Amino acid sequence: MAQVAGGEHAHHGPKHDYNLVDPSPWPIVGSFSALALAVGAVLWMHGSAVGGFIMLAGFLAVLATMFVWFRDVIRESVRGDYSEKVASMLRIGMVLFITSEVFFFFAFFWAFFWGALVPPDLFTTTWPPEGVHALPTWQIPFLNTLILLLSGCTITWAHHALREGDKGTTFKALAITVALGVIFLGFQIFEYVELVHEGLTISQGIFGSAFYMATGFHGFHVLVGTTFLIVCTMRAWYGTMKQERHVGFEAAAWYWHFVDVVWLFLFVSVYWWGGNMTWVSPAIQ
Q: Residue 1: pLDDT above 60?
């Protein structure tokens, strides 16, 4: 009983160096939601009629899980469960997570560069695929680049305002950042519709699959980052973020800057370089 009492005291006291959270169902719920999203997406891409519904249900479940999980983490922070040591470990965890995301996108860049520089020699291939025009680099992609660069400035502005204790400016800057993220996603959806109409689909060889997987997953990360920032914006509105320590905001800002950097690599390598080079590789007889 003494150990139990001590554990309860450690949990509710903010002075310990361990993040002892309440039992939570959200990790397992989030896992099954992500599984439904992935399975639904695979079924949908293979022409299954029910795949789209499973993918949508999984997507909505992921968003709902993110919302309630964020809510619980915020409650833990407000009641004082996070000491400076815990905050430091949370920062390290976010850095490791972003590192894993770097390697995630590295795989797509590897596939794209391999397809562009070392094409298969078993059959005749073209880059881009036949019937597909060069990517319009200086239209929507360039506009989206400017949008994300501007969003990087506004989130830095919000961080500076929060550290200065200016809650009003923090909210305004975060709201602008969220709006820019939504605008980026809107333009990307419009770009996808135009490219599909012009004949570029995910089934168009290495070019099509690598392009849509890389830019599509980046768009998904923008959606996740925007959701992350919406939570921070709501917290700024209600004044629950602390001027002296705001690990949640820092994590959101780091994630958003990571999304910006990935897009810069995508713009230069996929749109500008790889999207405008042309060649025909004859098959070896």
A: no
